[in-house]
Structure formats: C-alpha cells, structure tokens
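To fix ideas, we reproduce below a protein record of this kind.
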Amino acid sequence: MPFASILRSRLPGRPGVRQAGASAVGLLMGLAAVGLLLLGAVTHRQAREQTEARRAIEAGLATQAQLAGLLSDVKSIETGTLAYLLTGQQTHLPPYHEGLARLGGRLRHVGAALRGREEEVIPLRRVGRHTWAAVEDLIATVEALTRGDRQSAQAIAESGIAQAQIEALRIAVREIDERVRRDVAIRADRLQARTAVFEVLIGLVLACTLLCLALHVRNMRRHLRERDRASRALADAVAAAEASSRAKSDFLSGMSHELRTPLNAILGFAETMEMGVFGPLQPRYREYAGLIMASGRHLTALIDDLLDLSKIEAGRMTLNEAVIDAGALLREMAGLFEAEARRRCIRFEIEPPPEAAALLADPRMMRQILINLIGNALRFTGADGRVVLSYREPGPGPIFTVSDSGRGMDPGDVAVAMEPFRQIHAAVDAARGFDRGTGLGLPLTSRLAQLHGGRLVITSAVGVGTTVEVCLPPWRRLPPGRGQGSVARASEPALS
C-alpha cells in the first residue's frame, strides 16, 4: 500500500466538525475581546464620571462648610459688638475682629464654589447683600462706642437693622444649603446607581470571558487528544510504511537472485551460440542469439536499477568515497560510448578540464550517473546529432554537463521524466521501434546525485535538445595535487 494511502486510512479526524468547533470558539473569543474593549471604554467613562461626581460632592460639602462658617463669623461679630456695647470694655472685641478678618475669605470661597450655577446667583447676591448690611450696622455701632458716643451706638443697636439682616442672611444661607444638600444627594444617588450598573456589566463581561476561556480550554484539550491520536496513527503509519519498504526491498533482493541465476545461464548460452564455439550457426540463428543477449542485458540492467533505487529509498545505499580524476573519468566515458555513438552516427565529444581536477565522490556511483545521462542522450538523439560531455568548476561547485541536440521535451514534462517508470512519448517510441529504456535512468541519477549532496538541473526545449547538469557541493572539489586512493571520510546524509 502506498505511504499516502496508509496515512489516509489510519489518520483519524472529522475536519468539518473540528473546523466548526474552532470557528465557534474563535467567534466567542472575538466577542469576548470586543466585550473587554467595551468594558475598558465604559470603565474609563465611569471612572471619569465618578471623579466628577466626587468633586461635585466635595465642592457641595465645602460650600456647606463655608456657609456655616459665614453665619458663625457674622454671629461672632454681633456677639463682640453687643458685649462691647453692654460692658464698654474692648476686651470683648477679639471675636469681632476675628469674624471681620475671616468674612471676606468666606464670601470668596462660597462664590467660587457656586460659580457656574445659575440657580444660585440670586441667593448668593442676597447672602452678600445681607451680610454686608448686617456687618456695616455692627461696624457703625463699634465705631460710635470707640468715639465715646454711647447714645448713637445705643440707637443703632435698638434700630434692629443688624438683627433683621442677620435673620435674612440665615434664611438665604438655609436656601442655598438646602439646594446644595439636594444636589449632593442627587449626585450621590446617581453615582450609586451607575456603580451598580457598572458592577453588573463587569460581572456579565467577566462571565462571558470565563465561558469563552472554558470553551477554549475544552477545545484545546480535545485538539490535543486528537493530535495525540493522530501522532500515534502517524507513528503506526510510518512503521507500516517502513515495514512495507523493507518487505519490498527483501522481495526485490530475493527476486533479483532468482532472476539472475537463469539470466546468467541464458546470457552464457546465447554468447556461446553467437561466437560459434560448438560450430558455426546460420545467420538467422546468430541474429536470434544476439537478440537474446541484448534482451538479457536489458533485463539485467533493469534489475540493477530497481535494486539501486530500492536501496536508496530504504536508506541502505552508502557512499564509498575516493579521490576521482575528473579528466580521466571523462576519457573513460568517451572510450565506453565511442562505438555506440559511431553506430548511431552521432558525434560524441568530451570537454575535459584544462588542468588536473580532483573531486571526492563514490567512483562507481559517478560512473553510473554519467552512463545513465550519456545513454539517455544517445538514445534520444538522431543521426548526425551531437552529444557533449564536459566538466567545469565554477564558483558554486564542480559540475558535470551532458548536452545533446536530440528531440528535447517541454519544460513541463521534466517533472514527469523524473518520476520512476514514467517516460515521455513512450507510446510513440514503442510504435516506431525505438529503444524505450526502463524509465529509471533519470530518477536513479537524481537520487545518486542527492546522495553526494548535489542535484540535477535539466534544461530542455522541443526540437533543440536537452542539457543535464550534475551540480555537486563545493566541498567535494579537492585542491590540485591531491593523490588518488580511498579516503576514509563520513559521507553526507542522503536527501530524501
């Protein structure tokens, strides 16, 4: 079973329900956030109103205190004046002088406290008028006594003007005091009512927030449980996939052994027949023997590619690194494919590096990479075409390049060609009798390049040709003069 199918069959979940639950919790959390923002705004406004109400209440209480003090100061002036009038001794005048000293400040404080309140303007003027009228009468009495004119002082006192003004003052102060008390009580009631509403609003918002948090915690717990189940299912799926991969590798290894034994016998007998060891054969039979050998070699190559690809996918392929002479490797490839290229009427050229170039790689795998790429280039290049194998060392790292002037392919088909057993125009090639290959050359080559820490870069165009670059990492390039031989170095990890 493919790995994706195993995962789909084993992973639990109802994505629709999970998404709906997450959306509901998200909506509730959003509403809770909006509620908290509104609560903050209301809290700010409530705090401001409470501050203003407290200031108004404090101002009202201060006004009451000043009005009471004003009455007390006027009474002190009256008491001092009457005592001086009855005894004629100035020792009774200190309350008089103290009351006069405080009187102006009292009136200013009351006026400042009631400023801006139009309903208190007339009563405040009455207070001022009655206060100064009473005080002026008392002052006139004291001045007459001070001059020794006791008869005039007695007449002023008996006129009753000061007592009448003081009584009118008391009435005006009582009216203002009642208004102030009423205003303070109204403000206190409003403040208490708003505070109660605010406390209820806070309770509702906090309750909604706690509800949202509880739902979120429950959803998170459910999500964690589902994630734990998914993790266990994923681990089981990975274990099943690894077991399937091991079974596939074991199967391929066993089948390769079972297939190689008869294949070796078939190839040996076919080669013996083609060479005429036991006597000459008719030309038709010799041709048949050659076809048997070609088919056997093709089947052997297919088995080798399958085994290599299976080992790489299972992580069992390791690098046996050694120092490689790039120029010698290119010349080896030229000798290997010279006869094949001549048979196909294709010019096969190499462009070795101008100087000795050494790199660290697995010699067998590098030969396999170049053999696969050159074989593909010769296979898809027609007569009078050209195939070039080159090596260069630009800044990023060493690069082997195989370019041809063959049929090419669309850029969108490159990804298809990199998949195992996928071939471009396979049906057309089969109808025309072309050598189709196995469909494993490019995938296997890409995996081998990745084992070296490199990659394949394919550039192709229909009717123009194809260029394949094997780009290796810079650290695989060795400085000049490095000797040949095996190198004991840990290989880079394979790229999956």
Summary: The domain at 318-486 is CATH 3.30.565.10 (Heat Shock Protein 90). Residues 2 and 349 are 43 Å apart (CA to CA).
